[in-house]
Specification:
The structure holds two protein chains of two kinds. Chain A is α/β, with parallel strands linked by helices. Chain A is 50% helix and 18% strand. By secondary structure, chain B is of the alpha+beta class. Chain B has a five-stranded antiparallel beta sheet with strand order 1-2-3-5-4, covered by helices on one side. Chain B has a single domain, classed as Histidine kinase-like ATPase, C-terminal domain (Heat Shock Protein 90). The chains are: A alpha/beta, B alpha+beta.
Chain lengths: 125, 134
């Protein structure tokens, strides 16, 4: 079955969604990510959706689920690169992606993950 | 109202949701919709196609390119012969779901288009028609 690749970069996992996902592929990504977090002990997940032309309620729910699941597993999720027209449509649809941290691009998303990791490390001392 | 072009496609299984998004995208590009308008109608179509499969047990989508006076539009009709919707007002409400989803499909897609019509008879099926004008 087709799968979305998950790359590991240090403490973080990177996912770039480049295909128009059918529902089962989105669900598979959800499962794959949680097992990868568990296997690698990753502290952050960055999901790049800059190539996605549509985010409907199903994909939106998947993004929220990934954020919640990874939080429970002590990893932060940042969704980056949402196209402006996708953002407009999502909000009109009634989906504001509660609980999902977002950043404009990959660079800012990585900053966000690194900072939240540092803050957490300080908090634990 | 003059229909310039029309096509009926099946909406029976999950991969059809992606196919519907792609066809609607192609037609809205052909009509010269802005990127925002394209995204809105494609997203609405995606929600309704999923409803047709999950709640209606599959059905069809009729795509029509309309020409009314000087304006052009894209009309999409999703039709199924499933169980129908007993309480339409309730089904239109944000957050109400019978299928374990987010409950944004119907109300949400209504907000994304210019015209929205829902006809449903319990035991006979459901027909949702949406139109976006350029």
């Amino acid at each position: 079955m087709e799968r979305i690749p998950i790359l590991r970069m240090g403490d973080f996992l990177l996912v770039t969604i480049q295909v128009d996902m059918h529902d089962r592929l989105a669900l598979a990504l959800q499962d794959d990510l949680t097992s990868r977090i568990s296997d690698t002990g990753a502290r952050g997940v960055l999901i790049d959706i800059s190539s996605l032309e549509t985010v409907d309620s199903f994909i939106g729910r998947m993004l929220s689920n990934i954020a919640s699941m990874s939080r429970v597993m002590d990893a932060e999720t940042v969704v980056v690169g949402m196209q402006p027209e996708v953002a407009i449509t999502l909000v009109e649809l009634g989906l504001a992606l509660p609980g999902v941290r977002t950043a404009l691009n990959v660079e800012r998303g990585m900053d966000l993950l690194r900072n939240s990791r540092q803050n957490n490390a300080w908090g634990r001392r | 109202m003059p229909v310039l072009k029309s096509e009926v496609v099946p909406v029976d299984s999950e991969p059809h949701v992606v196919a519907v998004r792609q066809s609607v995208r192609a037609w809205s590009q052909e009509l010269g919709f802005s990127l925002v308008d394209q995204t809105k109608i494609v997203t609405a179509a995606s929600e309704l196609a999923r409803n047709t499969i999950k709640h209606g047990g599959g059905g069809t989508l009729k795509m029509e390119l309309l020409n009314e006076g000087i304006r052009k539009g894209l009309r999409l009709t999703f039709e199924d012969h499933g169980p129908g919707i007993p309480d339409i007002a309730l089904a239109m409400k944000d957050g109400y779901t019978s299928g374990g989803g987010l409950g944004l499909g119907l109300g949400g897609s209504k907000r994304l288009v210019n015209d929205f019509q829902l006809e449903s008879k319990v035991g006979q099926g459901t027909k949702v028609t949406i139109t976006r004008w350029k």
